[in-house]
């Protein structure tokens, strides 16, 4: 499963063997200038005694490997290659230069956070024509597909791997929440949703997962009461409280269309009931299902027709 992220097609172990390599002033032309005619090459000037170099190097290697061959990296020890460092006018380290088509095109000095390194590598990948989906995007697509097919265990594993690489990936956090809900682990889903970074609570993926969690929690309370609630509605069609609870029970039980029908009936008869509780519940259902779900699209059209008729 580890090769889902950071893997390059056709390479042993997931990435080309020479994706990251050490070079010297004698191999600089072949390893950097010539190689950059095919793909951008990042040159990391470092030294064993340099503390920031020891922090930057592994981070930069990680990001380069995640680019799956869209860029390459060469490491040069300035202590062992002083003439080259002089030619490159390296005055402080770590110093990083990027070459493409035989000439320097970008660079920076000093330790940088991982997010800025990803942006740096991303720009180079675009420059070299390697701007396709990232390994993280590929993994998210695979996880989403597994979840859609009902393989929630596999989806959870892939989402978890994504979070190992990007602990604040909102789509992966939301994905695990959805998987836990599907597996009936509603309390765990609520706890996991708490991992959402501060200030990101209104992200679309997080909002959708939160709506699905709210629906699951409400449905759990109404579980097993659908028949009794339906009997109350049949006896009194204007028992909106029963109809509202019935909608929640139906949605939790998988009858999403039936749940939407119940709420739309409340809106049709008395849209203002309980401070527009039916309309608000519909919006929660739509968020839980996602904006492109056919039932969301048809439900929104029907709701608009009622509200603006």
What can you see in these coordinates?
Belongs to the thioredoxin family. Residues 17-148 form the Thioredoxin domain. This protein is of the alpha/beta class. It folds into three domains: 2-127, Glutaredoxin; 135-214, Tetratricopeptide repeat domain (Serine Threonine Protein Phosphatase 5, Tetratricopeptide repeat), CATH 1.25.40; 223-307, Tetratricopeptide repeat domain (Serine Threonine Protein Phosphatase 5, Tetratricopeptide repeat, Alpha Horseshoe). Helix content is 58%, strand content 9%. It contains 14 helices and five strands. It has helices at residues 28-34, 51-66, 82-87, 114-127, 135-148, 152-165, 170-182, 186-193, 204-222, 226-235, 240-252, 256-270, 273-289, 294-307, and strands at residues 20-22, 41-46, 72-77, 95-100, 103-109. The longest helix is centred in the last third of the chain and has 19 residues, at 204-222.
Main features:
309 residues; alpha/beta; Glutaredoxin; Serine Threonine Protein Phosphatase 5, Tetratricopeptide repeat; 5-stranded mixed β-sheet; 14 helices; 9% strand; elongated; electron transport; Thioredoxin-like_sf; disulfide bond
């Amino acid at each position: 499963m580890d090769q889902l992220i950071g893997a390059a097609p056709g390479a042993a172990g997931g990435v080309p063997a020479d994706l990251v390599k050490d070079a010297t002033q004698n191999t600089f032309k072949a390893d950097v200038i010539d190689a950059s005619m095919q793909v951008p090459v990042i040159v990391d000037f470092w030294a064993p005694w340099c503390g920031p170099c020891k922090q930057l190097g592994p981070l930069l290697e990680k990001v380069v490997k995640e680019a799956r061959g869209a860029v390459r990296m060469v490491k040069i020890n300035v202590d062992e290659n002083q003439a080259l460092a002089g030619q490159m006018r390296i005055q402080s380290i770590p110093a990083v230069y990027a070459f493409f088509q035989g000439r320097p095109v970008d660079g920076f000095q000093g330790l940088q956070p991982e997010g800025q390194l990803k942006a740096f590598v991303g720009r180079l990948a675009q420059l070299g024509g390697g701007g396709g989906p990232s390994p993280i995007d590929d993994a998210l697509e695979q996880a989403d597909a597994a979840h859609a097919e009902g393989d929630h265990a596999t989806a959870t594993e892939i989402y978890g791997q994504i979070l190992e690489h990007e602990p604040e990936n909102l789509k992966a956090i939301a994905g695990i929440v959805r998987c836990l809900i599907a597996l009936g682990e509603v309390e765990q889903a609520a706890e996991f949703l708490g991992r959402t970074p501060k200030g990101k609570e209104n992200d679309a993926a997080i909002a959708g997962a939160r709506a699905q969690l709210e629906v699951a929690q409400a449905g759990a309370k109404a579980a097993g009461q659908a028949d009794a609630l339906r009997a109350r509605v049949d006896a009194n069609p204007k028992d909106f409280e029963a109809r509202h609870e019935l909608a929640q029970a139906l949605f939790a039980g998988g009858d999403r269309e039936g749940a939407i029908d119940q709420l739309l009936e409340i809106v049709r008869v008395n849209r203002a009931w309980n401070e527009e509780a039916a309309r608000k519940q519909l919006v929660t259902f739509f968020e839980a299902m996602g904006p492109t779900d056919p039932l969301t699209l048809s439900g929104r059209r029907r709701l608009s027709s009622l509200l603006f008729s």
